[in-house]
Amino acid sequence: MQTASPITDWNALALPALFDALARADAEDAVARALHEDLGAGPRARGDITSAASIPAALVGRATIVSRSDGVLAGVRVAEMVARIGGFSVTVHAEDGARLARGTRVATLEGPFAALLAHERTVLNFLTLLSGNATMAARFVDAVRGTRASVCDTRKTIPGLRTLQKYATRCGGATLHRIGLFDAVLLKDNHLGAFAAGTLGARVRDASRRARGSGPVAFVECEVDELAQLDELLGLERGVLDMILLDNMDPATLAEAVRRRDARAPHILLEASGGVRMDTVRAIAESGVDRISVGAITHSAPALDLGLDLEPGDGVVSGEQRAPEPSTHPADSRPMTVAPFAQWQPRLDAACAQAALLHRAIVLEETPSTQDAPETRAARPGTVVTAWRQTAGRGRFGRQWSDTASAGIAATFVVDSQPAERLALAAAIAAAEPAESALGTRVGIKWPNDVVVG
């Protein structure tokens, strides 16, 4: 999870910037885990065995994602991540935050038919889940339109998908609450249960001082469930509290809380929580509160119904024909084909299980240099760190280059210092021999470990 320093106002960011700053890193992790679930990892890394056994490798195809119901779209960037790893293209017809009517085209996928089959469920799982969150958020936002209240999300999210689901609620027009326990203070009833009677104001003042003194916080908020507690907090000096959470109060009590706040501390925001449903949210908003937190937009939102229809495209290979084997003609200069990114981790895990000197593989989607990646610096001997794309590779004399995704393999092996030079040469030999056999052309070695084709 990524956070900015001192504190980022996530609600001030446009959706593309919000995704990049808040959710992209978590999305990459989530996609990798999802593909491992489907295609296997470690000893179970076999890929889509059904498609491998039934679909010609050279068959290409097309898939169209269409909305089967009205809703709000979220998750397009995640679908693009899956496509990049799976080796097929995505043409986006609707962007995150778009209102979808039944029959709206969302995206077109094109590429190897087997790859589309292997990744369609992962694409749909992310799109339907996140679009469901966005759609539910939009319904609550629409229900309170014309009042001063904003609809806020909560921490009631699927483990591992927090920032993605929060991003989705923003696609639906909701306001992001705190991201986690690390960025804001919210004293709830379970905290208050440890306070002695009559000490609420003093304890909240002390907690606020300690939290603000330890580092930046987005806000300090305290929950109350009765008006007497509210009165005590409204008497605190300015700068202690930013918000007060009004828990499970009916609209009339909420309206009285707003009246008291307006009279004594208009700088404090009031947030309503508890019992918030589609049939109650309008009355809650009309009480005059500033915010309404709704757990349902993440924990109870139904998936948006999106369909994906696959069909063979141009360039179909008929019958049982498979992809052609590499030519053995010396003049053949076709580039070496790199395995789809989703297969790297399971293949390397399997290789490490059989290797004497390698014990762990770390696979990155993108890094400036595998030599300088934090994962490399923290790794123990016996680790290989490799990347789908390297943007600032570095040679022995400081020369830099960038690798095109899928056009090569950048890797760093972490070893003890003594055998490092010999291992570099051994690695070059190990790469050159199978490359020469696969390409049918001469492959040489430029000392100490550059492999030169042709």
Strand order of the largest sheet: 6-11-10-9-8-7
Uncertain parts? 316-337
Rounded average pLDDT = 85
Structural class: alpha/beta
Query: What's the number of extended β-strand segments?
Result: 19
C-alpha Rg, in Å?
A: 28 Å
The number of helical segments is 14
For the termini, the CA-CA separation is: 45 Å
**What is the share of helical residues?**
25-40%
Morphology call: elongated
Q: Beta-sheet strand percentage?
A: 15-25%
The largest pleated sheet is described as:
6 strands, parallel
Indicate the topology.
Elements: H1 15-39, H2 49-54, E1 60-67, E2 71-72, H3 76-86, E3 89-92, E4 99-100, E5 105-112, H4 113-143, E6 150-152, H5 162-171, E7 185-187, H6 189-192, H7 200-214, E8 220-224, H8 227-234, E9 243-247, H9 251-264, E10 269-273, H10 281-285, E11 291-293, H11 296-299, E12 306-312, H12 341-354, E13 360-367, H13 374-377, E14 383-390, E15 393-394, E16 400-401, E17 410-414, H14 420-439, E18 443-446, E19 450-453
Parallel strand pairs: 6-11, 7-8, 8-9, 9-10, 10-11, 13-14
Antiparallel strand pairs: 1-5, 1-12, 2-4, 3-5, 14-17, 15-16, 18-19
Helix pairs in contact: 1-3, 1-5, 3-4, 4-5, 8-9
